[in-house]
Amino acid sequence: MKLFALLLSLLAFCTAATAAEGSSLREGWQEVDGLHIFYREAGNPTDPTVVFLHGNPLSSIMYAKVMENIAAHQRVHVIAMDYPSFGYSDAPSRDAYRYTFDHLAQTVADFLKARGIERYGLYMQDYGVPVGFRLISTHPEAVTAIIVQNGVIHLDGFPSAQDPNGELRRHWVRRNPAIDQRRINYIKSMTYPQAVGWEDEDHAGLDASLQMVAAAQRPGVAEARSDLWFDYGTNVGRYPQWQATLRKLKVPVLVLWGKRDQFFTTPGAKAYLRDAPQAEVHVLDSTHFATLDAPDEVAHLVGGFLASHRLVLGRTEP
């Protein structure tokens, strides 16, 4: 009996050690269409996968803590990449790479293909939402679950775009060089985190903020980001199509929203219920970057969602 108890203890120790090792993030670059695309992942790639699509102006760093937490408690494979010009991925010139959401989505699709990922749940935030919904529209059969955090497919949560005659909507119809220059000047004026004269309004944290500034201020990136922002108007035009796609999908949906986000506001969270009445909606006392501001709370909600729908076992039924 003592030997058996010892063997059980040893087995428990080895299992825990293996889980802990598997939850550690692995980092690297994947060659995709001639570009070096940086990624972070944890867990066993043979287990069900959740793909994390980041927003603007951050990168996969915004998911690091959440991904590690989920992988430590669930049998799940988590992976996030940096889009071209974001984070540690290559920043090709505007002549070499078209900075549009269609092209970003194609790069993400090619990245997933290169990594052998065919079925996955999607966690999407900010820019990640229009990228992800392009993937969903193209291959709805590949998607096992949808998780949205502070990203819209309804004008309800996008106050600055609601007026058809407002500055943004007019810019997306006819590009305004003054808006481009204003955005470029802002990017070039950003400073590294420091003790005096620097504020972290969205609670992104020092490391994410430092990487954000360094990546955005690489040569040509500010101009490339302006191209991408101009192309955002194509997303608004597709909102009705994406809403219809969501209504047709019968997959679990989780919506998380930092209520202190002044750009994408909380009505955007509740709007998802019109197209996905099965959705779980949680409004958090957090910011636009809730995965950095409240990573434990986000990981707890996402982990519970995955477990309740048995997604960690590769099944999608409630």
Describe the protein's architecture and organization:
It is a single chain. The relative contact order is 0.14. The chain has an 8-stranded mixed sheet, with helices on both faces. The chain has a domain of 211 residues: Rossmann fold. The protein is built from 12 helices and 8 strands. By secondary structure, the protein is α/β, with parallel strands linked by helices. Helix 2 links the parallel strand 3 and strand 4.
Task: Provide a short characterization of the protein structure.
This protein is of the alpha/beta class and about 325 residues long. The chain is about 45% helix and about 15% strand.
Instruction: List the uncertain runs.
Output: 1-21, 313-318
Strand content: 15-25%
The tally of beta strands, per DSSP, is 8
**Helix/strand structural class:** alpha/beta
CATH superfamily of the domain at 28-160 and 236-313: Alpha/Beta hydrolase fold, catalytic domain
Largest sheet: 8 strands, mixed
Strand order of the largest sheet: 1-2-4-3-5-6-7-8
Mean pLDDT across residues: 91
Instruction: Compute the number of helices.
Output: 12
Give the CATH architecture of the domain at 28-160 and 236-313.
Answer: 3-Layer(aba) Sandwich
* Rounded radius of gyration (Å): 20 Å
Distance between the ends: 41 Å
Broad shape: globular
Q: H/E series, N to C?
A: HEEEHEHEHEHHHHHEHEHH
State the CATH class of the domain at 28-160 and 236-313: Alpha Beta
Helix content: 40-55%
Q: Determine the CATH topology of the domain at 28-160 and 236-313.
A: Rossmann fold
